[in-house]
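Hello support,

Our group uses your service weekly, and this is the first time we've seen a run hang past the timeout. The protein is Sporulation related protein. I'm not sure whether the cause is the sequence or the server load. Input pasted verbatim:
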Amino acid sequence: MKTLFTFIICCFSFAVFAQKRGEVIIVKDPLVDSLIEKRIALSKKAAPATGHRSGAIVSQMGFRVQVFYGSDRRKTFNEQARFKSAYPKLNTYITYKEPNYYLRVGDFRTRLEAQRLMNELRSTFPTLFIFREKINAPRL
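Update from on-call engineer: The timeout came from a worker crash unrelated to the input. Re-ran successfully.
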């Protein structure tokens, strides 16, 4: 009886190893490749009217100043427009973490740079905080 069970287990184990290697066929829309190429071209293309630099965006850890936060989306975008009218060269970033929207500005390598902007903005924007997060590295 033991030999019968051993024989059956051996037969099943050979069946497990008898699988053939298959072929993987990737089916995708050709527009995916064109979108990837367009994204690469846009990241390398210089945009002199907007003041962006050419080349790929380099991310690193740095600092941003939080100018506004609230649960009203329209108010957040209004604050962004107000800030952009006063400081058009600084980048603004709106993030949403339930239930609030956060408006953060700047891409500062050091906390001292962020502190300088915060001191300058203190009279205009009442709630200011400095956050360490991943930034788009500014050109040196």
